[in-house]
Design goal:
Elements (H helix, E strand, L loop, with lengths): L24 H17 L3 E3 L9 E4 L14 E12 L2 E7 L2 E10 L2 E7 L5 E7 H14 L10 H17 L3
Antiparallel strand pairs: 1-2, 2-3, 3-6, 4-5, 6-7
């Protein structure tokens, strides 16, 4: 089932999400709905808070070398904790909650993450490149932050100006 994605400036996007402590069929169904929503909207990642549920859950499904978003590569990450971040990379990011806006964001180049899967089993994941960026971007959502908070003062002023202009043009 495709869920509604919250869009900036919805205040719920700035809430800190709570840890998941129940790993049941309801969680599994919710993760499946998150996946359907992400694919339908053309995203590569989605945090639970983006669909109105403030729990520490996110999904990521990058496009593979054959330009296919294979569900077999889907990462379902519950209660993530970064245990290592190093290096630096600049990557142009976008967000389903800030549609139509893209900007370069500085992130760690290499990350190590501990997390649980939909069944509560613990895992460790090392990532670099786009996967490292996506993990940090989606985890920011769980902490109540959007990528536009990381773009610098002048770019943020420009974004706010463009956003206000676009908002005035939207029909009621």
């Amino acid at each position: 089932m495709v869920l509604e994605i919250l869009e900036y400036p919805d205040k719920r996007l700035f809430e800190r999400s709570v840890e998941v402590d129940k790993f049941d069929t309801e969680l599994g169904e919710f993760l499946d709905n998150m996946y359907d929503t992400m694919i339908f909207k053309g995203g590569i990642g989605l945090a639970a808070i983006q669909v109105g549920r403030p729990i520490r859950a996110l999904i990521i499904n990058l496009v593979n070398e054959n330009e296919i978003q294979d569900k077999g590569d889907l990462l379902e990450i519950i209660n993530p904790k970064f245990i290592k971040k190093d290096g630096e990379q600049l990557y142009q990011e976008g967000c389903l909650s800030v549609p139509g806006y893209y900007e370069d964001v500085k992130r760690a180049a290499n990350v190590t993450l501990e997390y649980q899967d939909r069944f509560g089993a613990s895992h460790t994941l090392e990532a670099d490149g786009l996967l490292a960026v996506a993990l940090q971007h989606e985890n920011d959502h769980l902490d109540g932050h959007l990528f536009i908070e990381r773009i610098g003062f002048n770019k943020r002023k420009k974004f706010d100006k463009e956003y206000k202009k676009k908002s005035k043009q939207k029909p009621l």
